[in-house]
Design a protein that fits this description.
The protein has one helix and twelve strands; from the N terminus they run αββββββββββββ. With 179 residues, the protein is mostly beta strands. Strands 1, 2, 3, 4, 5, 6, 7, 8, 9, 10, 11 and 12 form a twelve-stranded antiparallel beta sheet that branches. The longest helix has 20 residues.
Length: 179
């Protein structure tokens, strides 16, 4: 029999908070399938890469498909973020699944973006936590199409009693690159 070290309740709760942060950040980092709004860019160029830090672990994906090219209103296809169609991967034994297809709108003059709703589930071992965040704001990085999150709070909608009731993601813990 293999010995597993005891993990304190505080450490477990911190990990669950990390799962929750991942859940929200993953959603924020982009997914969805809304109607394109007049994009002249071919579908092959409408891609989104995302990176987030969750409880000290890095999570990322590349080449998710979006319905239009930024700064047009768009959504990102969650099937191209989540496995098996996508390549979302995290360190630290955390897994995440995006449950919805969030829509993004852009204010190019102000250098901002907004996500309507992110609905995500995070798992670690046998613990599962589902969170939703609404009206998430992003700031553009200079003149690029990289957007960095502002702080936001996600609320638990289901999952283990060990999952925190809400999780706040600090500004800068997630980014998206539209290309």
């Amino acid at each position: 029999m293999r010995h597993t070290p005891n993990i304190s309740r505080t450490t477990r709760l911190a990990r669950f908070a990390g799962i929750a942060t991942l859940v929200v950040a993953a959603g924020l980092a982009g997914t969805g399938t809304a109607l394109a709004h007049g994009s002249a860019v071919p579908a092959a160029d409408q891609k989104v890469d995302g990176v987030m830090v969750v409880a000290g672990n890095s999570c990322s994906w590349t080449n998710a498909s979006s319905s239009a090219a930024a700064p047009n209103a768009l959504t990102v296809d969650r099937a191209t973020v989540n496995a098996p169609g996508g390549n979302l991967a995290c360190g630290g034994g955390i897994a995440a699944t995006l449950n919805n297809n969030p829509a993004f709108t852009f204010d190019d003059a102000a250098g901002t973006a907004r996500t309507d709703l992110i609905d995500i589930t995070g798992r670690q071992s046998f613990i599962s936590c589902r969170y939703k965040a609404t009206n998430i704001a992003w700031d553009r990085d200079g003149t690029t199409r990289k957007y960095i999150n502002r702080a936001f709070t996600a609320t638990k909608t289901s999952g283990s009693f060990l999952c925190p009731g809400s999780v706040t993601t600090p500004a800068g813990d997630a980014s998206m690159l539209f290309r």
